[in-house]
Amino acid sequence: MPDRRKSPVVPLVIAVIAAVALAVVLVRGGDEEAAKEGAATGSAPASTSTAPPETWEQLVRRDPDDPMALGDVDAPVVMIAYSEFQCPFCGKFARDTEPALVEKYVEDGTLRIEWRDFPYLGPESSLAAQGGRAAAAQDRFWEFEEAMYADQLPPNSGRLDEGHLVSVAEKIGLDVDRFREDLASPDVERAVEEDFAEGQAIGVTGTPAFVVNGVPVIGAQPTEVFEQTIEKAAEDAGS
Question: Domains of the chain by range and CATH?
Fold first, then answer.
């Protein structure tokens, strides 16, 4: 059995780029307004100079203090999720599939989920990503994520502004003054940009895009697709 930890990222990039074509079709069929704003093309702004990692393991952070990760730091399977708060298909995944994966695999120690910001739909997406990190600073990122997707605004509606984010922060019981301060922090903005650049460096152009122990899964696929991929990754990790 090959050592998956040494698998190069180049095939991953190729697979991601190829699979994005499917995501483009799904977006065109599912949200006309999002298509107009960039989701239909599946394209993000030109990538920064961030160099792609040589192996998928270099993408995995396994930071025990990461508030934007769920699951054991030593879980055999890590799913990196490139997501953004305006994407309707990210919302579909968060509502329909993520809870099942958490219950089935995160809680038993098999799976770790690591969020990455990929705000490719524009300024409202970037601001929302900063809001997620402001919530993370109070260890409430996942409550923020759930609230944002539970009542998700249409892409680029003009309503995803600071006031909306503060209302979500209030709803989940955050310290609003601290939230506002972190929302405007240059460090928070920089962290969002770094995640975005990382995704672009490996060929991600749209959301949601996942990397499960080096295997790309593109789009809000049926829950069964994620289950099969996670179980195969766990099997390979244990062999």
Answer: 4-238 (3.40.30.10)
